[in-house]
Amino acid sequence: MSAHCDEFAFDPERVARVRSKTLGLPREVADLFKALGDYTRAHLAYALAHEELCVCDLAVLVGLSVSCVSHHLRLLRAMGLVKHRRSGRQVFYRLDDEHVHGILREGLEHVRHRREGGR
């Protein structure tokens, strides 16, 4: 069974309708998933989905240097996925908002569903 059309034909109205609704958005969504597509950043995000943690806590959790973790957190911050607060000499991180929690929840649910043989 072929995964493509046997004959090239498209619906110009359908394409125009979808194009008008998606201009620019696929790139931003791809960048969001690219940020979470790195194992270390995904690990950090999932940890922060459970509790606010300081950079040192996160470094021990993922087994990397504070400098390396800070680098990953800067990228997550730039993407609007995490935010931070300073408390004395420590910097604590947490997920930015409920949307980020939802993305991670849905990702985890999808993985669990696939592991259980769901389609």
Would you write up a description of this structure?
The protein is mainly alpha-helical and about 120 residues long. It has a single domain (about 10-115), classed as Winged helix-like DNA-binding domain superfamily/Winged helix DNA-binding domain (Arc Repressor Mutant, subunit A, Orthogonal Bundle). Helix content is about 60%, strand content about 10%. It contains six helices and three strands; from the N terminus they run H-H-H-E-H-H-E-E-H. The chain has helices at about 10-20, 25-35, 40-50, 55-60, 65-80, 100-115, and strands at about 55, 80-85, 90-95. The protein has a three-stranded antiparallel beta sheet. A hairpin with a 2-residue loop joins strand 2 (about 80-85) and strand 3. The chain is elongated, with a radius of gyration of 19 Å. The protein starts with 11 loop residues before the first helix and ends with a helix. The mean pLDDT is about 95.
A few lines on this structure:
The chain has 119 residues and is mainly alpha-helical. The protein has six helices and three strands.
